[in-house]
Amino acid sequence: MNAIFKTAILALAMTAPSLAYALTVKTVPAPQGVEAWHSEEHTIPMIAVSISLQGGTAYDPADKLGLASLTASLLDEGAGDLNSAAFKEAMEKRAIRIGFGAGRDYLTVTMTTLTENADEAFRLLGLALSQPRFEENDIERMRAQMLAGLQQDEEDPSTIASKAWSAAYFGDHPYGRPGDGTEASLNAITADDIKAFARAHLVRGGAKVAVAGDITEARLRTLLQQTFGPLPVGNVVAVPRPQTIAKLGTETIALNVPQPAAIFGLPGPMRLTPDFIPTFVANYIFGGGGFASRLMEEVREKRGLTYGIGTGQEDMRTAAIVRGSVESEKGTILTALEVTKAEMTRFANEGVTEKELADAKTYLTGSFPLGLDSNGKIAGALGGYQRAGLAPDYVFKRNAMIEAVTLAQVNAMAKKYYDVNKLTIVIAGTPAPAAAAPAR
Fold first, then answer.
1. How open is the CA angle 222-40-92, to the nearest 5 degrees?
2. Which domains does the chain have, with CATH numbers?
3. Cα dihedral sign for 378, 382, 383, 384?
4. 2 near 363, Cβ under 8 Å?
5. 49 to each of 14, 118, 401, 414, how far by Cα in Å?
């Protein structure tokens, strides 16, 4: 099978729907320190893998911001006896895809492979994790790419607002720092820094692996041992929980742009608390439901103040927030935010209707299987559940949990979490004075 044909088959396999009723998820034995989940499905000859290692940007030293991201970018730039070109050629020849990234808490890995190439895919993955080369020319090339990315970010109001919001809300806590670093911090990172970070964080302790597709448990156990067995057990302590919100109120970053961007947010429920699911439903109604949400109705549809506005829950390992974004013209951005705050106050004080709750449940339960209609999506979803500390059976219990949410619970969450007095707002752009909000 030639490489082009293999790639075509792999692309089809990643998008072809799986049989929802056939989905199974179970824990399989793995090397010490590794939590492994397995969803076995033999309809399509491909395998998808999601891996999370405790090595996200929150672990960057304060003077070496961007270290986790730079390290992640280098893990497919050669390993073992393969230099960067040879490593990528080995993947391309067999249509193997391996990608590395750094989130706040975890270094994440995604891998897809045809079943016939699973042995080679896991071999290359094992080399990348246990024997990365970190050659000087590769370091300088990836550093240059990250520096170029920083320059582009400086021209994007949304990115500027997002970074500034994290800094305003979390302050000196590691979650408040820019994960892609600064020009000074990136230039300060040495090869020894990268190697030390890899030794400390490319370990088995706390590793989470989710595998979906055409592979038996027996074969998976063998490949997990070969891939993760060479890694040290290790142990990575979670970053401390933020104690307070660093800065409430509104901060404006002066920028000469025609359309300022604003980020607004406040504390949310931790993922494993009883408040999370009812607040998840509440957020859909308030700002997470696209054109079905109150914010889209009030800010865009009724008043034409923006093309889009939305909110979402974000859960980190030791913090949780409800955060939203909106862009508008110079003369209307402040009005858009005033309408947002007014709607948040109404949401907290008056709650939601039975119809809004019923519609939210219908969408949230009905759309859920669409996030599990391919091996890649299944592995990705299971990896997210692992990082959140959920159990393998969550995928089967989730819809029932949403259906069980009551009107009283949603209204209680609206009052508890949607308090405008707890808002942190950052505007990137220079607003003109706000006009009076159009009547509702």
1. 65
2. 3-228 (3.30.830.10), 249-428 (3.30.830.10)
3. positive
4. no
5. 12, 11, 27, 37
pLDDT, tens digit, for every residue of 97-131? 999 999 999 999 999 999 999 999 999 999 999 99
Backbone angles phi, psi at 142, to 5 degrees: -70, -35
Measured CA to CA, the distance from residue 178 to residue 398 in angstroms comes to 33
- In this structure, what token pair is assigned to residue 142? 């990836």
Residues, the chain: 440
For the question of whether the overall pTM of this predicted structure is more than 0.70, the answer is yes
Tokens of 185: 């911090």
Residue 224 near residue 124, CB atoms below 8 Å: no
State the DSSP code for 418: -
Three-state DSSP state, 205: coil
Measured distance CA(178)–CA(67) in Å, rounded? 11
Of 173, 200, 158, nearest in space to 68 by CA: 200
Which tens digits make up the pLDDT trace of 369-427? 999 999 999 999 999 999 999 999 999 999 999 999 999 999 999 999 999 999 999 99
User: For the chain, how are helix, strand and coil distributed in percent, rounded to 5?
Assistant: 50, 15, 35
- 391 Cβ contact partners less than 8 Å away, ≥ 6 residues apart: none
CB 382 within 8 A of CB 212: yes
